[in-house]
Specification:
By secondary structure, this protein is mostly helical. The chain is built from 6 helices and 2 strands; from the N terminus they run H-H-H-E-E-H-H-H.
């Protein structure tokens, strides 16, 4: 099963960026849950690392919710990715088996190096794009819903 935390966190952040542009900065976990077809508890779990990193500011209680912690131009997709994924590696390697040959003996180290290289490339790509860039790109794609 593919991890969807980054996609969901990015959707939340883009909605916050658009809300900030429209002057309705605070969004509740219930609003997000309805838009993402999920439950408010999952949204709150997504918001915790974003809040801890200062990307969002969360307030509790009636009229509370989340809003951007910094301008969208100052938040990179790499920032959001790191919050959503945490320390989880891009790819999981299979458990080490018996070292009966050169491949079995060296696959773990090889795969760790390959994963680290791929993660650096992903973070470099995401680090070049801001949340504001992403909102502009979404708008440029048009207003019609994409076909699944």
């Amino acid at each position: 099963m593919l991890d969807i935390r980054f996609c969901r966190a990015l959707q939340v952040m883009m909605r916050l960026a658009i809300a900030a542009e429209e002057g309705s900065e605070v969004r509740s976990s219930t609003q997000f849950a309805e838009e993402l077809s999920t439950n408010p508890s999952l949204v709150r779990k997504l918001l915790v690392p974003l809040h801890n990193a200062g990307l969002v500011i969360c307030t509790k209680g009636r009229g509370g919710g989340a809003r951007l912690g910094r301008p969208a131009e100052e938040i990179t997709l790499a920032d959001i990715y790191r919050c959503a994924v945490g320390d989880k590696p891009l790819w999981a390697r299979s458990p080490d088996g018996e070292h009966v040959c050169m491949v079995a003996a060296r696959t773990g180290e090889f795969f760790a190096n390959l994963t680290a290289e791929a993660e650096r490339a992903v973070l470099a790509s995401l680090g070049d794009r801001t949340l504001a860039d992403s909102v502009r790109e979404i708008r440029a794609l048009g207003s019609e819903p994409a076909h699944r």
